[in-house]
Amino acid sequence: MTEEELNTVDLQVYLVTKAAQSDDLYFAKKEIIASELRSWLKIRIREELNEIKVDSAEGKKFYTEEYSHELTKADYIAELSIKDDKDLMLKFQKLMQSLNKEKDSFLDKKINFQIVKFSKNEKNAYFIFYRGVKISALERRKVKRIPAVRNGEQLVIQNQNIIEFGGKIELFVCEEVMYILNPRTLEYSFSYDDHIKKQRDSNISRIVTMKFFDNESNVEEFISMSSQYILSRGLASIKTETLEALEESFNDRCEELKKIKTDLPNEEPDKGEYLKRYGSLWPLYEHIDIENRKVRFNPDYEVTPLLHFFSDKIVESFLTKKIKTDIY
């Protein structure tokens, strides 16, 4: 659209909070925005849409593929039909209802995401940006830095909440189809993470049945701590080939860990440099019996290093023997 054509498009902005404990699911408030901001936002989203087009024989076009619950997204726009998922359809309907209820009694700090709604000829498009409001420093506790702005000849505290607009397109909805560029925006906005939990649980189940787990591995504690939501995506994204490499190479990795520990220098500065060089590996000794080549999960220590060991974070540099090359 030209700028003249953009002027015929209506634009509305809503700030939304999730209300998981309410049947409404969402509360939203419609914001009054200045004409200058409205014009800028129309142009910015138009430009961002152009940015995600790709070259083709027919010229620039949007490249979409059906959303397949992949945990990492390739260079395409994932397309998800809302009506094909009853749970998602219900949540989207609740969200649309919240835009019409004008419930504006919640605080800025409760806001989870923003919706920019475009309307023309009775057709609507909804752009969802998963970002909250930057609360004024004066409202936060234990502030160590505070922003100031010029007011005439003096600097004064910037004491207003800040709402940022623009940026890369994350997700938009048009005619009951979601177009997804950032899967996390879908997951967070609509609590759409069942596929992640399923894959996470599958990978955990496979890991704890490997030969280096036994009755003394504290399996139940390991499963409980590994199932925390913040760790779910990392666990779910562990590839089958990574798990196969782990099971096949665990004994070799234990031998490498044993050698790393044995070769620790006694004197500085060599000792400090050595500790730093293998810093990501030292926490593993709290969870792995390198002599008996078994996992001995210790719930008094973070589970994260052990999960890193099971995933690409250490697999790429450790299980593929890049670290081993450094050792020998």
What does this structure look like?
The chain is an alpha+beta fold and 328 residues long. 39% of the residues lie in helices and 18% in strands. The strands form 3 sheets. The chain has an 8-stranded mixed sheet, covered by helices on one side. A hairpin with a 4-residue loop joins β11 (288-289) and β12 (294-295). The longest helix is centred in the C-terminal third of the chain and has 23 residues, at 240-262. The radius of gyration is 26 Å and the shape is globular. Mean pLDDT is 86; it is low at 323-328.
Q: Which helices and strands, and how do they pair?
A:
Layout: H1 3-6, E1 10-19, E2 25-31, H2 35-51, E3 64-66, E4 77-81, H3 86-101, E5 113-120, E6 123-129, E7 148-151, E8 154-157, E9 171-174, E10 177-180, H4 183-190, H5 194-208, H6 219-226, H7 229-236, H8 240-262, H9 270-277, E11 288-289, E12 294-295, H10 304-310, H11 312-319, H12 322-327
Parallel strand pairs: 3-4
Antiparallel strand pairs: 1-2, 1-5, 4-10, 5-6, 6-9, 7-8, 9-10, 11-12
Helix pairs in contact: 5-7, 8-11
